[in-house]
Design a protein that fits this description.
Helices cover about 40% and strands about 10% of the residues. The chain has about 220 residues and is of the alpha/beta class. Strands 3-2-4-1-5 form a five-stranded mixed sheet. It is globular. It comes from Blastomonas fulva. Belongs to the N-acetylmuramoyl-L-alanine amidase 2 family.
Amino acid sequence: MAPISMLVLHYTGMQDAPSAIDWLANPASKVSAHYVVTEDGQIIRMVDEANRAWHAGRAHWRGIKDVNSASIGIEIVNPGHEFGYRPFPEEQMSALIPLVAEIVDRHGIPRANVVGHSDVAPARKQDPGELFDWQRLARVRLALPIPDGRLVDPYWSDGAFLLALERFGYDISDGRAATTAFQRRWRPGTITGEIDGECRAILFSLLLDRDAGRYR
């Protein structure tokens, strides 16, 4: 195991919690996660944090390619886009937030490395998706906040936007998928896959904050 420096949030993407838990516990599935959080707020530990869980697959974040070895994975029960994507209930979020806080504190994980599966695998994944309340995590300093206020469009070309997106952490080998993942996380109300002024302005603000040392 590499030192733990990331926390990756997923949704289960299966029809119900028992199906997801059975699948994650089945060695034949070749997938696993450290924790599952059910919609009624139960937390099930599936894999000891001292061991690698196989939750990220082929993934990349800020130069880290073996994301499974460098991260803790939490599966949040939700049918996902395939089976009826829906908001994450209050009971579930209320259970998730203290769990994330404990893990982040235990491993010293920076907020910038609390990410969604779609952030680290944009060409393959959509989870936890645009309905996940990242701002709620941000308000208790467990994730980066979505920039707001007076944003400035740097008027980058599309190529320059993608290079900036790579500098922020994303794999840009599929530029449209990377842009879609960025929007799903940072502008969840409008997901088009198209680079526009608002996307440029949000990313510009994120990079300015990071370069100024305001966020780890």
